[in-house]
Specification:
Blueprint: H1 4-9, H2 20-39, E1 53-57, H3 63-75, E2 80-82, H4 89-98, E3 103-107, H5 109-114, E4 116-121, E5 126-130, H6 134-139
Parallel strand pairs: 1-2, 1-3
Antiparallel strand pairs: 3-4, 4-5
């Protein structure tokens, strides 16, 4: 059975000494996040993902270009993360997929020379976009 205080708290703003509505709102927000994660199998939409683009340079030769791409993406209001290290490129791509990053930007010597970005979608689709147009192309996904 509900106490009179809790019953009054069931309707927000009806009791001045009510503590329950903020707790209830927290539970509702947590439930909404849990429902989103369950619905999308942990793969959040691009606009909601904490890391939106994983930047993976093929070798250390293009590390400077990778940092330039990171700056360009961050300047466009996106949330990029750099996946560089001693692992192979395939292992870094798998790590980005396991982290549920929606896009992986693979950068090699050809992309650096052509000032482009090779994008790999989470579903496996690939495309190549000039660096100066990447903000316009990815801006559509943010909304």
């Amino acid at each position: 059975m509900w106490s009179p205080v809790l019953r009054a708290c069931a309707v927000p703003g009806t009791s001045p000494d009510c503590v329950a509505p903020p707790l209830r709102r927290c539970r509702e927000a947590g439930t909404a996040i849990a429902m989103l994660l369950e619905h999308y199998n942990g793969i959040l939409p691009f606009w909601l993902a904490p890391e939106q683009v994983a930047v993976a340079p093929i070798s250390h030769d293009v590390a400077a270009y990778a940092r330039e791409v990171m700056g360009c993406l961050a300047g466009e209001g996106l949330r990029p993360v750099l996946y560089e290290g001693r692992e192979t490129l395939a292992r870094r791509i798998v790590a980005a997929r396991e982290a549920r990053v929606p896009l992986v930007a693979v950068l090699g010597r050809r992309e650096a020379e052509g000032r482009s970005v090779s994008l790999r979608e989470f579903d496996g689709a690939q495309s190549s976009i000039p660096l100066d147009q990447i903000g316009e192309v990815l801006a559509v996904r943010r909304h």
